[in-house]
């Protein structure tokens, strides 16, 4: 399938951070174990796709841990900026012999950005626990990132929306 067919079949819509998504699951079971003690879904899941016309998932962080699962298309490059300033680059894709990964865990509190560097699309799923809530996500702002990580600005500036 091409990107347009997948967008239609999976009911994907534009995402605030870039790319396209569709929420596929949100558990009816709730937990109060979140950082703010507000009841949240135990788990939520989405399809997420970057395309050649929307190739960047802009730098953002979530309070919850997220597991990313590669499904198909071209590989996606992840930049993970840890609270201690360590910058990690991981490629999610099917070429395991060349160091790509099928699954990636990004801990809550880490900044992350994603890029489709070539190809028409890259399709993944994400499982979030506790479940995703928009108020638990922060899009990076230039001043925040420059102040916290000035030494990394040249490497991550293109991922700021």
UniProtKB/TrEMBL annotation:
Coiled coil: none annotated. CDD domains: cupin_YML079wp. InterPro entries: Cupin_DUF985 (IPR009327), RmlC-like_jellyroll (IPR014710), RmlC_Cupin_sf (IPR011051), YML079W-like (IPR039935). Residues 5-140 form the DUF985 domain. PANTHER family: DUF985 DOMAIN-CONTAINING PROTEIN (PTHR33387:SF3), RMLC-LIKE JELLY ROLL FOLD PROTEIN (PTHR33387). This is Cupin domain-containing protein. It comes from Candidatus Methylobacter oryzae.
């Amino acid at each position: 399938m091409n990107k347009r067919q997948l967008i239609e079949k999976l009911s994907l819509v534009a995402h605030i951070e870039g790319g396209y998504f569709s929420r596929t699951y949100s558990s009816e079971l709730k937990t109060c174990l979140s950082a703010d003690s507000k009841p949240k879904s135990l788990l939520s899941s989405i399809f997420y796709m970057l395309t050649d016309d929307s190739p960047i998932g802009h730098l953002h962080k979530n309070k919850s841990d997220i597991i990313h699962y590669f499904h198909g298309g071209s590989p996606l490059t992840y930049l993970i900026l840890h609270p201690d300033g360590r910058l990690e680059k991981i490629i999610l894709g099917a070429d395991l012999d060349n160091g790509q990964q099928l699954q990636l865990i990004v801990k809550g509190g880490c900044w992350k950005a994603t890029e489709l560097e070539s190809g028409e699309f890259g399709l993944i799923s994400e499982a979030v626990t506790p479940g995703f809530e928009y108020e638990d996500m922060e899009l990076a702002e230039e001043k925040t990132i420059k102040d916290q990580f000035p030494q990394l600005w040249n490497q991550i500036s293109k991922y700021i929306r």
